[in-house]
Amino acid sequence: MNHPKIFGLIFLVLFAISCGNDGKNSNELFAIQFEESKKSFKVEDELALSIQNKKNSEIQKIEYSIDGIALLTSQSGASNKIQLKDLKMGIRKLEAKILSDDDTYTIYKTFTITATETPKLYTYEIVESYPHDRNAYTQGLEFDGDTLYESTGQRKKSSLRKTNYKTGEVLKKVQLADQFFGEGLTILNDKIYQLTWQSKTGFIYDKATLEKKGTFVFNKSAEGWGLCNDGAVIYKSDGTEKIWTLDPNTLAEQGYIELYTHSSKIPRVNELEWVDGKIYANIYQKDAVAIVNPENGAVEGVIDFKGLKDQVTQHSELDVLNGVAYKGEPGILYITGKNWDKLFKVRVISK
Asked: Is the pLDDT of residue 9 over 60?
């Protein structure tokens, strides 16, 4: 025999239990308030906040955390301050877990952390120029000693190359399968790691022979764009404002930083290069390279490469600056672009 009323009652009880005291009920009782109703903060700021107690409930304890990191415990909803100096740039999520009348209520509020200072501005001067294959749709560029390795893109044209940077000669070349669109590359522990664009797949090669040794996948980041490494950790851009950290052994995505100046985020982060403790990040379709603090994502400088593209042969397939390499020479970078017929050695100078 069916008992619809009993089944309905059981459903309501289970629903109530599953909901707990979060969500709508919590927001009816409490709200997080920021001092002066600010939504954006500098990394050196203190986040002054309090709890709006809408029903004058008794508060026994409040635990504050940001992105899951416990930061402060308070015995009341009165004004408190949280230091932001050790947090990363970008949109952060503040959680307040409130113990009230022996029940726990959880509420949230988002805010943005930006860099403290305006980025320093740099320009360049050309030191030398070298031949470069104008059919190479450059996606990644990295030196190993005097040898320049290059990843190129476009479906049915993508490749990994070992080159003589002074002559432009391609010493060895591996063609990717037609379905793959090659992207950035980096070299670590005698292995080359190469991304593809939208296939969620990367390739691992032996540095000396360019023999393919394996593959890896990435599932959290949006796409495959640029790679670099600091000798221990691999960094990966995905076409957004994010740069991900990858475990060098498993290639698993561990976390990310977000690129922000003192006033705004920097989207479309592309080719990456590790230079003396900083990440140099080419911004796609901009004649600019951002100098990034790898700890928190703060953009500390911007190199303006306006006019460099005008120094190469102009033709119908010529595309944007996209290729940054560092050879260990202080203040010197090697720059090229998609279908450029020159590789430039440039000196970076203050603007």
From this structure: no
Q: Are 230 and 276 in contact (CB under 8 A)?
A: no
* pLDDT, tens digit, 9 for 90 and up, residues 132-149: 999 999 999 999 999 999
Instruction: Determine the Cα–Cα distance for residues 207 and 274; give it in Å rounded to an integer.
Output: 18
CB-CB contact of 47 with 41 (8 Å): yes
Which domains, and CATH codes, for the chain? 20-114 (2.60.40.10), 120-350 (2.120.10.30)
DSSP structure class, residue 7: H
Burial class (CB in 10 A: 0-12, 13-18, 19+), 238: buried
Rounded to the nearest 10°, the torsion over CA 97, 102, 103, 107 is: -20
248-270 confidence digits (pLDDT tens): 999 999 999 999 999 999 999 99
Span 311-339, average pLDDT: 97
Q: Where are the beta strands (DSSP E) in 145-226?
A: 147-152, 159-164, 170-175, 182-188, 191-196, 201-206, 212-217
Query: What pLDDT band is residue 172 in, cutting at 50, 70 and 90?
Result: very high
Q: In a 3-state reduction of DSSP, which class is residue 10?
A: helix
CB-based contacts of 40, cutoff 8 Å, min separation 6: 111, 112, 113, 114
Strands (E), 67-102: 69-74, 80-83, 90-100
* pTM of the predicted model as reported, rounded to 2 decimal places: 0.88
pLDDT at position 17, please? 38
Identify the pLDDT of residue 141: 98
- Going by their DSSP bridges, the two strands 138-144 and 69-74 should be labelled as unpaired
The C-alpha atoms of residue 299 and residue 266 are separated, in whole angstroms, by: 9
